[in-house]
Design a protein that fits this description.
This protein is of the alpha/beta class. It contains 17 helices and 10 strands. An 8-stranded mixed sheet has the order 3-2-1-4-7-6-10-5, sandwiched between helices. A two-stranded antiparallel ribbon has the order 8-9. The longest helix has about 30 residues. About 40% of the residues are buried.
């Protein structure tokens, strides 16, 4: 396993300058600091805002639909960057500026709640030991670790038994494969923590990651879930892994940070996902037995589990009534609450990303199937959470769904029947957007030259990955546990 160095630090001139700037900002009055950050962000985004304005002025003379599409993409990107760099607060490090309206309805956690750290694994003999050792190396003092072997046949079970004797973790063996969701629910059945934390078997978790997620929940009782910050563990393995590493940074640092501003992160990602017990416990049977399009939906959808936290105020009672006989519901019926869901940039985790094309395409198809399924659940209530969360959620959903048609229109139809120049302009716009995300990566990671891969990732997304959405929709009923094959 080619590994990045999660704990490495840079000590070059740029890092020292960034550290001095960070210290100066922290020493300022909070209101003055917020104003300065907004001013700097607007200054950095000014060229994009001018481009949007210039296109808007020319709108009556251009092709209306395509011009509006270009403006909406640039506006959406600018909005995400503005929210992420001026409004986002790490809930593990400071009190959030936007809080729930009725804090008294959320029960406070003790200063040091019991935490259950849960893992389901199948045929990961090469990765699981590093993962579990990183879990056991957590600096959180009151930690229960539960690992479920979901019918592995490659020696994973023997590794787990050895680690159980050495580290004192709890191991559950499934004689036959039952699927990742069902395996994790088995782990939850023996978990006694007030906070349930999940990770994936190909991940390595930072020693302070669990503590930071718990700190966020203790400081903010209204948080039902917290997502960590994920990067590629094997970032140096190939060009493909470098592309994904830069993409992961942006998806967490910018996209999740923007959603976190409104307490509505729509996907608490599997590499590091922390939940209040009260926020998900009653909905675990609904998750394990989820059905869609008339068939069981076997993918362990992080989005769907997050959706139960975000939407239980409107959908929770019906879900619990449907599974009233389950011990997860019958033993303790927790009130439905309008939980907030946040993201902690300081809670680090690293995951092995696909280093070859075929596993990457399989992974992307799985993610797009989960996106489609979740759209029919979370999409039914997200508008109730307010204009900010609704705009981010439905805007992203519309962009994802429209992407295949727009790619076909620009890159296939236009060169054949309209104008090849339109295809060139479209690709230039894709590269511009990628450059903006790349510059954001450069800002957060001074001295790291991988920012140059971000425009290439934008091209990959539009020219290759966008086409997978129709395929995912047509093969929606095909679903298996493993992350490496279809």
């Amino acid at each position: 396993m080619t590994s990045a160095t999660p704990t490495s630090t840079r000590t070059g001139p740029e890092s020292r300058v960034q550290a001095r700037l960070g210290s100066a900002l922290e020493a300022m009055d909070p209101l003055e600091r917020a104003g300065l950050v907004r001013l700097l962000a607007l200054t950095a985004l000014l060229p994009v805002l001018l481009l949007i304005a210039e296109r808007a002025v020319r709108l009556p003379y251009a092709s209306g639909l395509l011009t509006w599409y270009g403006i909406s993409v640039l506006t959406g990107t600018t909005t995400l960057l503005y929210l992420a760099y001026t409004q986002y607060d790490d809930p593990a490090e400071r009190t959030l500026r936007r809080r729930a309206r009725t804090l008294e309805e959320f029960p406070a956690l003790p200063d040091q709640p019991r935490v259950s750290f849960l893992l389901a694994v199948k045929d990961e003999v090469g990765n699981v030991e590093a993962c579990i050792r990183s879990m056991a190396a957590s600096d959180y003092p009151d930690l229960q670790i539960v690992a479920v072997d979901d019918g592995s046949s490659d020696g994973t079970g023997a590794v787990l038994e050895r680690l159980s004797d050495e580290l004192g973790i709890t191991v559950i063996r499934c004689e036959h494969n039952i699927g990742k969701k069902a395996a994790l629910v088995k782990a939850c059945a023996v978990a006694d923590g007030q906070v349930l934390v999940f990770t994936d078997s190909d991940c390595v978790v930072a020693p302070d990651a669990v503590r930071r997620c718990v700190q966020a929940m203790v400081r903010h009782p209204e948080l039902g879930a917290v997502s960590g910050h994920c990067r590629a563990l094997n970032a140096n393995a190939s060009i493909l892994t470098r592309l994904q590493d830069v993409w992961y940074e942006g998806q967490f640092r910018i996209a999740k940070a923007a959603e976190s501003v409104f307490g509505s992160v729509c996907c608490v990602s599997g590499p590091l996902a922390a939940f209040r017990r009260e926020a998900i416990y009653n909905y675990l049977p609904a998750w394990a037995e989820d059905r869609f399009a008339g068939a069981p939906f076997r993918f362990a959808t992080d989005r769907q589990l997050t959706g139960y936290v975000l939407g239980q105020a409107w959908r929770g009672r019906a879900l619990k009534d449907r599974h009233a006989a389950s011990p997860f519901v019958a033993q303790h019926d927790y009130p439905e609450r309008r939980w907030l869901v946040s993201y902690s940039r300081s809670a680090g985790v690293w995951t092995n990303v696909p280093s070859h094309w075929r596993p990457l395409l399989h992974q992307q198809v799985r993610w797009k199937k989960s996106f489609i399924r979740n759209l029919f659940f979370t999409g039914a209530f997200m508008w109730r959470r307010g204009p900010g969360p609704a705009l981010l959620y439905y805007g992203h959903a519309l962009w994802v769904m429209a992407a295949p048609a727009l790619v076909f229109l620009h890159l296939v139809w236009a060169p054949l029947y309209w104008s090849a120049a339109l295809a060139v302009l479209y690709l230039a716009g894709v590269l511009l957007k990628g450059c903006l995300w790349g510059l954001a990566f450069r800002l957060d990671n001074p001295g790291d030259r991988r920012w140059r891969y971000r425009p290439l990732m934008s091209l990959l997304s539009c020219c290759v990955l966008a086409w997978l959405l129709p395929y995912a929709a047509l093969t929606l009923r095909r679903g298996i546990w493993t992350r490496t094959s279809e």
